[in-house]
Design goal:
CATH class: Mainly Alpha
Number of domains: 1
Radius of gyration: 17 Å
CATH architecture: Up-down Bundle
Helix content: over 70%
Structural class: mainly alpha
Strand content: under 5%
Order of helices and strands: HHHH
Largest sheet: none
Distance between the termini: 22 Å
Number of helices: 4
Shape: elongated
Length: 145
């Protein structure tokens, strides 16, 4: 019974962490960044977006930690898969590493130059695309095992 509860808790932690990380970056990319950029300032979203990312940064680190811990638990608990499964799982892990790195870079403090804001926007786009691919691969892997 205790092992079953831990399994449920770890699955919840994994899904909740993914929602916080991917959902937060998706919101920032699709809603906050464009809205603040069009708020009348010619030089981009400005200091308000910097304050938003400053507040979101601890959540990014917590979500990454939650994904690593719960993902490692889930990987170690479920054994005996095929090579085909591990191939897709490896692709998923590589995409997850990209999401982690790009998320950390997207929420780091930066100068408010147009070049840096373009990089931040590109990183957030990469996180959203890779994150949605991870969710697709995860749904597929869940289906085949």
């Amino acid at each position: 019974m205790a092992a079953e509860m831990i399994g449920i808790l770890m699955r919840w932690a994994h899904i909740a962490s993914a929602v916080v990380l991917i959902g937060g970056i998706l919101y920032a990319r699709a809603v906050a960044f464009p809205a603040l950029a069009n708020a009348g300032e010619d030089d981009g979203p400005g200091p308000l977006f910097e304050r938003l990312t400053l507040r979101y940064r601890p959540m990014v680190y917590a979500a990454i930690a939650g994904l690593v811990v719960s993902g490692l638990y889930n990987f170690l608990i479920h054994r005996g898969h095929t090579r085909y499964f591990y191939t897709w799982f490896g692709i998923k892990i590589l995409l997850a590493l990209h999401v982690f790195a790009a998320s950390i870079l997207a929420v780091r403090p930066s100068e408010a130059t147009p070049q840096e804001e373009t990089r931040r926007l590109r990183r957030m786009t990469g996180v959203v695309v890779s994150g949605l691919l991870i969710i697709l691969i995860s749904a597929y892997l869940r289906r085949i095992y």
